[in-house]
Amino acid sequence: MDRGGNPRVVVVGAGFGGLWAVRTLAKKPCDVMVIDRNNYHTFLALLYQVAAAELEAEDIAYPVRSIFRNLSTVDFTLAHARRIDVEKRVVETDNQVFPYDYLVLATGSVSHSFGIQGVEAHAFFLKTLEEGVALKNHIICCFERAARQTDKSGDAGVLTFVIVGGGATGVEYAGALSELIHGPMVNDYRNIDFRSVRIILLEGTDSLVGGMPPSIRSYTAERLGKMGVEVRLHTKVVEVTPESVILDGDETISTRTVVWTAGVRGEPLASLSGILAGSDGRVPVLPTLQIPAHPEIYVV
Ligand SMILES: Cc1cc2nc3c(=O)[nH]c(=O)nc-3n(C[C@H](O)[C@H](O)[C@H](O)COP(=O)(O)OP(=O)(O)OC[C@H]3O[C@@H](n4cnc5c(N)ncnc54)[C@H](O)[C@@H]3O)c2cc1C
Q: What φ, ψ does residue 84 adopt, rounded to 5°?
């Protein structure tokens, strides 16, 4: 789009950060190109409900093009940004190169395994729509598998669900999973002994939802306990295998389901492009969100 000398602004990421920037930029004299690897915006705050079969995927995915339909200076391209050439001022993607005068990097975060063995290979994550749907399908498959076993003592781990990380996402998912299992599942799988189902929430520190006031932290643990969730504090995972999770102190829990909600790191696009970033992928910015070395780049 060339509207006669207007600055070209490229926004990478149509999450909450990118959309908010576009909302403001659409009122300014500039041409905006939004790039996202998906052509939908994911309302991440409700992702745990998709993974617990409370919502359908399409309930939290909004077509980006329809969001921008009435914004005449805003265009969209479905592409995965691979690298930014900060000297040439271009964004290189898997299908096209986009020159910019100003760049807004709003690529969000990715799950962080902290290098713990087996997490990347065997754990489930809860950061994208695909991951939410995959987790839901896996949970249902576990119940199907348990329902068809003739020897019910054969595979206890199949109905043990371990969530690692007692922050907001882990807590929300543990609660939603309990509602799913002790609600609709009880009616649908009448030959399963639901007393054998375990939902275990592991947290490395001394409380759930750290950062919240103490009364909320203790209420959260108490409430989850009443919902049948086993909350284990001061518990660190050292390895995840296809059939177990191994804890610090050598305890092994048999499970086919480890949901990793233990932390996030910055999406690696900035660090892959030579932009200064910390070990957790976060980019240091000025209060204006500009990068000191490249004030034409803003990072959300
Ligand atoms: C399960 C869950 C529940 C949450 N609940 C809440 C809540 O209740 N309240 C709350 O305030 N926050 C909640 N959050 C946090 C909130 O979702 C995030 O803070 C918010 O999404 C961050 O917005 P963002 O725009 O920075 O990143 P994102 O929303 O992650 O958007 C990043 C966008 O960039 C795109 N992208 C990334 N890399 C590339 C690339 N290389 N090329 C092209 N496109 C790319 C992605 O596809 C995505 O569309 C929750 C998060 C999760 C995971």
A: -115, 130
What CATH number belongs to 119-260? 3.50.50.60
Is the beta carbon of 15 within 6 A of some atom in ligand 1?
A: yes
Complex ipTM above 0.90?
A: yes
Helix axes 214-226, 168-180, angle to 10 degrees: 20
Task: Specify the pLDDT at position 86.
Answer: 96
Look at ligand 1, atom 9, and give the residue with the nearest C-alpha: 45
| Dist. CA 44 → ligand 1 center (Å) | 6
**CA distance to 16, 50, 93, 95, 217, per residue, from 41 (Å):** 8, 15, 19, 20, 31
Question: Has domain 8-108+267-299 been given CATH number 3.10.290.10?
Answer: no
Question: Above 70 in pLDDT, residue 2?
Answer: no
Question: Would the CB of 167 count as within 6 Å of ligand 1?
Answer: no
Phi–psi pair at 142, nearest 5 degrees:
-60, -40
Testing ligand 1's pocket by substitution, the residue of 107, 124, 131 carrying the most ligand atoms inside 8 A of its CB is 107
Spans of all domains in the chain: 8-108+267-299, 119-260
Span from the CA of 211 to the centroid of ligand 1 (angstroms): 20
| pLDDT tens per residue across span 260-288 | 999 999 998 998 899 999 888 999 999 99
